[in-house]
Amino acid sequence: MQSYKICGGKMLSGKIRVEGSKNALLPIIAASILVKDIVELENVTPLEDTYSMIDILRLLNVRVIYDHKSKMIIDSRNLVNKRISSEYTSKLRASYYFMGALLALYKSVKVGKPGGCDFSTRPIDLHLFAFENLGFDVVEEKNFYKFKKEREPKKIIEFSKVSVGATVNAILASVLNKGTTILKNVAMEPEIDDLIDFLNKCGSKIKREDNKIIVEGVYNLFGCKYKIMDDRIEAETYVVIGALLGRNLEIICDCKKYMKEFLLLMNKVGAHVKETSCGVIVNATKEIKEQSLIFNVYPGLPTDIQPVLTILFTKSKGESVFEDNVYPDRFSQVDELVSMGYNLHLVDKKLLIRRNNAYLDSVVSCKDLRGGMSLIVAAILSNKTTCIKNCEYISRGYYDVINKLKRVGAHIEKI
Fold first, then answer.
1. Looking at the domain 4-19+231-414, which fold is it?
2. Residue 307: is the preceding peptide bond cis (ω within 30°)?
3. Exactly one of 117, 253, 255, 391 is catalytic; which is it?
4. What does the alpha-carbon distance between residue 322 and residue 312 come to, in Å, rounded to a whole number?
5. Which residues 6+ apart lie within 8 Å of 366 measured at CB?
6. What local confidence, expressed as pLDDT, does residue 368 receive?
7. How confident is the model over 268-277, as a mean pLDDT?
8. Strand 411-414 versus strand 12-17 pairing type
9. Contacts of 315 (CB under 8 A, 6+ apart)
């Protein structure tokens, strides 16, 4: 169990380099088995989830070479269709992307139920809906889903609700189909477009028309070299930290074009954020203008940044209100933040945020990835000492976060 001790209230200055996107990387790793050739990926972040995906690849007899920094070679020429047990899939939510990839290749597949952060009820009914429309019968067992191809796929699949994961799985499962598959009411996240760009570089024929994706099936794919996009959520997290405690804190990234809604919000509330050719430079501001915010699917404010933004709005004089349309119960961090002295209240699945007048020495515990990161941000802002337990959650999405923050002046140590 990882624990951090943080003495907060220190100004931060220097440079922080943003890593490759976890949310783009994981579906691309799963998609690599469709190629049955050699794929070379760059900007691969060594996160816990990255290694969990590698474990599944190796289970499927895929050869993986990774330098534990950036470059990964995936050789799936000897891929074998094996049952993926819950021992592997329960470690992360993104394990379900192997469902779509394997269904594109085989008529019968058995995959364990996915795991991941438990901050909300997150069924995979839309994924199963896509697979059934693509011709598979689905049988749910205690820890598994069994799939078997029984009929021809439908040509048009329209989702009742926008889902990033279901959109990805529908793309993966239809890439090698005969004819054209049209996916309607799909997610518009840039990480999905990164997957599409990767697959097209491997020989697929996929194009997006706003919230519609058209997949023209191909017979096979071929290997390529591909660079994963930078992580916009990590970048936005460090921008928030800079708006709280930055002194010319420079966030180096190439994903600003995907952060438009977030950067507009920063400008609206009075944060001192300057865009540069290499990223953004952030300086702390004494006061943030209160807001009522709704977190939504892209291009709206991302749900993944909601817990961290909570801390920024404790710098407002008035009351701010947060509502999360993607995961309405995603407020696991609130009780822990309250114990640190933060003035927060949950009312009818809305988070009320008020300025707090005093912080407290405290011992708190991470319950999920993004909520855990919000505890680090809160502890950095606090002028007290905070011990944060269960920090292994944070390493699932933020690489080397402690050393990155220490290098710009934060007082953090592992205990």
1. UDP-n-acetylglucosamine1-carboxyvinyl-transferase; Chain (3.65.10)
2. no
3. 117
4. 12
5. 372, 375, 388, 389, 390, 391, 392, 393, 394
6. 93
7. 96
8. unpaired
9. 244, 285, 286, 287, 288, 355
CB neighbour burial string for 376-410, b if at least 16 within 10 angstroms, e if fewer: bbbbbbbebbbebbbbebbbbbbbebbebbeebbb
Angle of CA points 89, 91, 97, to nearest 5°: 45
**Distance between CA atoms of residues 309 and 381, nearest Å:** 13
User: What is the pTM assigned to this prediction?
Assistant: 0.94
User: CATH 3.65.10.10 occupies which residues in the chain?
Assistant: 4-19+231-414, 22-227
Tell me, what amino acid is at 55? D
Rounded CA gap, 140 and 79, in Å? 25
Helix, strand, or coil (residue 184): strand
Q: How much is the pLDDT for 357?
A: 75
117 classed as catalytic: yes
CATH architecture assigned to 22-227: Alpha-beta prism (3.65)
Residue with tokens 């749900």: 303
**Residue 365, Cβ neighbours under 10 Å: how many?**
17
Q: Give the contacts of 228 (CB within 8 A, at least 6 positions apart).
A: 20, 21, 24, 25, 28, 41, 42, 43, 44, 45, 194
Overall average pLDDT of the 343-348 stretch: 96
Residue-level pLDDT at 117? 62
Taking the C-alpha atoms of residue 66 and residue 54, their distance in angstroms, rounded to an integer, is 9
Q: Which of 209, 135, 122, 215 is nearest to 168 (CA)?
A: 215
Q: What is the DSSP string of 274-324?
A: EE-SSEEEEE--S-----EEEE-STTS--GGGHHHHHHHGGG-SS-EEEEE
Backbone angles phi, psi at 355, to 5 degrees: -65, 135
- CA 54, 58, 64 angle in degrees (round to 5)? 65
